[in-house]
Design a protein that fits this description.
The protein is α/β, with parallel strands linked by helices. Helices cover about 40% and strands about 15% of the residues.
Amino acid sequence: MTPLPLLVGDSNCIAIQQANAELEFPRVTGGFLSSAGAFCEPFFIADGTSVALDPAVFGERLGQWRELAGAPSTFDRSTPKLIVSLGTASPLLYGNPMWKSYSTTDSSKAFVTSGVLDRIVEGLQAQVLAFFRQVQHHGVLAAAVAAPAPQARHRAVDWLGTEGVLDLDQSFRDPVRALLEDLGVPLLGVGVGTAPDGFLQESFWGPNWSHANASWGSAVLDEIAALGY
């Protein structure tokens, strides 16, 4: 019997786990490992034959993830395929209180040039992009999951306006989207629950302004199932 894909990543995994728990026959194992910020620093070890999640970074959480997944946290061609939820949780960027005083468009605030914004995003995304390259190189990356669209109730809308939030959201996601396209890796969940205005539909809102609910997770699980693993 083919092992179920391993879900690993940030807190957007929780909605997928919730939906998965409601199924008679689960579609994934594993799930949430750590909040998105933990993946901005080095978090894995690659030795040429495998890629391992670093226990020095995740501590007890890694043991809990291994128990949940029923699988090791070192990945190579012998391990189940990975479904990775990393690199698109854009509240990490637009939710930073710095945007109370800074802007890429508002002349009444301190101006952030496109070049500076690019360097900020590069700093936040460097480790995630490296991880994607490594697990793809080792033949274990099945797909990535895109985080849900921003919510109109997020506090950053007061700082940046709707267009400002959506612009930063896209700026944050673009490097991951481009890399996955280059690697030929599907990005699941794109547009799930997104209203015509670019924000997440209220029926998909989760327990806070950064996360979606199990209905969103269920739609992502349908896309995972369609991969055929």
